[in-house]
Amino acid sequence: MGILEVKDVNKRFGGLKALSEVNLSVRENSVHAIIGPNGAGKSTLLNCLVGKLIPDTGSVLFDGQSVLGRKPFEINQMGISRVFQTPEIFGDLTVMENMMIPLFARRDGSFRLHAIRSVRAERALVERAEQMLTDVKMIDKRSMHAASMSRGDKRRLEMAMCLVQEPRLLLLDEPTAGMARADTNNTIDLLKEIKESRNITMAIIEHDMHVVFSLADRITVLAQGTPLVEDTPANIKGHPKVREAYLGEHA
Ligand SMILES: Nc1ncnc2c1ncn2[C@@H]1O[C@H](COP(=O)(O)OP(=O)(O)O)[C@@H](O)[C@H]1O
Ligand SMILES: [Mg+2]
User: Fold this and answer.
1) Is 179 contained in some domain?
2) Ligand 1 pocket, 46 CB below 6 A?
3) Which of 8, 47, 51, 130 could form a disulfide with 58, with the two C-beta atoms 3.0–4.6 Å apart?
4) Residue 69 belongs to a domain with what CATH number?
5) Which part of the chain is the ABC transporter domain (predicted)?
6) C-alpha 45 to ligand 1 mean position (Å)
């Protein structure tokens, strides 16, 4: 059994079937990519995993426990973190202040700015944040304002803010969307390092096939709300059903 088990999930928006009988099993410590054309239901599926949407039917189990009906911060506390399409960092705060946000967040996910800025008393938390910044090679940028950094560095910071919470499952929704090639390569390197150095499972939605084939252990191809095929990257390449989903070809 996988660390994440999606069973017979259906989700409609009015007359539109966004997800139809979705089954997915993500193995612990693997990188599982979900690919598919625009409108395939990828974001809808991810939103069902983090408490932003509740499926009409079906179940989503994380480590044997249902995530359905739980609030996003409760799911976060279960050990699931999510990186959004646009980095969710605070541009007016420094790198280090951003790092303190997840460490100082209250149970409901809110935080007080003055608490983050007067962290002298919380030496252990500062050290934890510093270690994380060292791990992702950002420690020399600790005093920079987040707004002044490149898109790749903003993504790197956001990843560090997720990882400092020590999640067991990291969900990534198009982490390289809108990035220049150099920033994309930077993000691939970072994800590879994370994969190799931590006990972490990743589920990644991604359009860039270079990113997917560089990282994924398993790939699920979603089309019109239904998984078409799930296999290794080597077997997915050139698969007739994948060509069909992307190019409208009939194999
Ligand atoms: N909140 C919503 N209300 C109505 N339709 C939606 C909503 N969210 C997504 N959809 C529709 O559901 C389908 C799947 O969307 P989405 O999950 O965003 O696809 P993807 O992320 O693969 O591009 C699309 O047809 C989209 O227009
Ligand atoms: Mg999407």
Assistant:
1) yes
2) no
3) 8
4) 3.40.50.300
5) 4-249
6) 10
Would the CB of 42 count as within 6 Å of ligand 1? yes
- In which domain, by residue range, is 18 found? 4-89+152-247
How far, in Å, is the centroid of ligand 1 from the Cα of 120?
Answer: 45
- Of all ligands present, the nearest one to the C-alpha of 85 is 2
Residue nearest to atom 18 of ligand 1 (CA): 43
Closest CA to 216 of 232, 230, 228, 200: 232
Residue 191 lies in a domain: yes
Is position 239 within any domain?
yes
The helix or strand, by DSSP H or E, that contains position 234, with its residue range, turns out to be helix 233-236
**Could you tell me if 161 and 116 are in contact, meaning their C-beta atoms sit under 8 angstroms apart?**
no
The minimum-distance atom of ligand 1 relative to the CA of 47 is 17
Query: Is the minimum distance from the CB of 47 to ligand 1 under 6 angstroms?
Result: no
Number of independent structural domains in the chain: 1
Closest ligand relative to 225 C-alpha: 1
Tens-digit pLDDT string for the chain (251 aa): 899 999 999 999 999 999 999 999 999 999 999 999 889 999 999 999 988 899 999 999 999 999 998 988 889 889 999 886 666 789 999 999 999 888 877 656 666 666 666 655 478 888 999 999 999 999 999 999 999 998 889 989 999 999 998 999 999 988 888 888 998 998 899 999 999 999 899 999 988 888 999 999 999 999 999 999 999 999 998 888 777 766 654 43
Which amino acid would we find at residue 176? T
Q: How far is the CA of 80 from the centre of ligand 2 (A)?
A: 19
CA of 43 to the centre of ligand 2 (A): 4
In a domain, 65, yes or no: yes
Angle (deg, nearest 10), helices 123-135 and 95-104: 120
